[in-house]
């Protein structure tokens, strides 16, 4: 996870933006020189960019100890990944299901407000419409963003660790990240943002791009090693 964040920091490419006091300091549109990361983030020298990345990993994974690091199910990232996995059909089957639905159902599904209104009962259903809606819900979670705020604080101001949310399963988590090895501590808040409900329109567009890619691979006989080896 830390290697991924380091790579994002070096090459944001529309996937990472860094703000300081509300001002955009680093993005693909205006990249900050890597040599300036630490002096910009920690002008008083109380930490470095590696400390910040470590804290981000711990908070996203729901951990308090770098020596016992693992992704916890209750963490923000764990819940996002769980939501992304509720799709059981994939893009080809989802597109096929959509094309087979009656015209009036297709029209209903094009309304982005329908998915939030349906509620969690869609997760238990197994009919074709429910399978398609679960695909769209998973696609929505694959395109969300996570907003993290990490002000450095004096560790002695927090004699005990705390981690609390505004409400059970709240989308905003607040607390104090664990002390790092030099006693540096961060307060933090984490929010899931940019939840743009996906509709079959997104599915049709994605299907077109997917098939164009398949055609390109077949024409050029492109072969690539798998990203993850078993």
From TrEMBL:
Entry keyword annotation includes Nucleotide-binding: yes
GO cellular component: nucleus
InterPro entries according to UniProt: Ins_P5_2-kin
One GO biological process term: inositol phosphate biosynthetic process
Catalytic activity: 1D-myo-inositol 1,3,4,5,6-pentakisphosphate + ATP = 1D-myo-inositol hexakisphosphate + ADP + H(+)
Keyword Transmembrane applies: no
Keywords: ATP-binding, Kinase, Nucleotide-binding, Transferase
E.C. no: 2.7.1.158
MF term (GO), any: ATP binding
Description of its domains: The EXKPK motif is conserved in inositol-pentakisphosphate 2-kinases of both family 1 and 2.
Function: Phosphorylates Ins(1,3,4,5,6)P5 at position 2 to form Ins(1,2,3,4,5,6)P6 (InsP6 or phytate).
Protein name stated in the entry: Inositol-pentakisphosphate 2-kinase
Species the sequence originates in: Ancylostoma caninum (Dog hookworm)
